[in-house]
Give the backbone structure.
Amino acid sequence: MYEPINLGYSTNGLEPYIDTETVMTHYNKHYMNYLNKLNELLQKYDFNFDVDKELIAKNINAFPEEERSEILYNLGGVLNHELYFKNMSPSLNNKPMGSIKEAIDKKYGSYENFKNEFIKQAMDLRGSGYVFLALTPDGELDIITLANQNSPYFFGWTPLMAMDVWEHAYYLKHKNEKGNYFDDFFEVVNFPYINNLYEENKL
């Protein structure tokens, strides 16, 4: 079975920006629920758990048609949450560096322009979902918003950075002030990790 990721920081490590109760509830309840359900679904088909989770969507036709949407929903819940948790760090490495800085500056003109566009798209997202910085199938850097637990992997994109816009990601601390949550998220963004993903996946 797939094992849960290690956060890499304590549940209070993102204070005061992302509160301890939210991290604990988000990781132990929401993320683990998706992971447990995905494992349960895959176990029914003698699934080879050595396969990278990202590849499941590409091979979804190997599963019975009536199970595919449920597998994809829980797979997205796992992939999106794992990227989201890894995208944050208490180390405050919250400014782009290396190749990802060059790519962001080239695409958006500056980090501030990128940040403003990312938050704008988050504010425009209706209902639950995520905002991603991702690589298109052509290797271009772009921002994409997806509803519910859809993943860029489902559409041939490679996500580098994810911000969870489901209410459970922010409501305990920020209530209905989503904008404050978006600002706080950018205080703990882990750009060294994002840069490594970009280096590994750029064409």
